[in-house]
Fold this sequence. Notes:
Elements: H1 5-51, E1 62-64, E2 70-72, H2 94-102
Antiparallel strand pairs: 1-2
Amino acid sequence: xxxxxxxTGVMSFxxxxxxxGVAYAYSEFKKKExxxxxxxxxxxxxKEKKSKGKALIGGPFTLVNVDGETVTDKTFLGKWCLIYxxxxxxxxxxxxxxxxxxx
Length: 103
């Protein structure tokens, strides 16, 4: 039996085109699936953030100053007050930040 190479070549091209089409469709499907999963995770993260509430800024406080004395919000009543939470030892960043605050 003699097989024509021309028809085999056409069949090979059709098979390759079909495989390429299926691969493309699958990749688009997976891309869409991954995008939906990413959006779902973003929504979950937004919900988590909302459920935690807001930071309590201002209001009464009690702290210990550098001299070991207890100070409260009433200690600074009528005065400007900046409370800076930094590190006890950080030679790289803290001095620069404190300089910025001082300006």
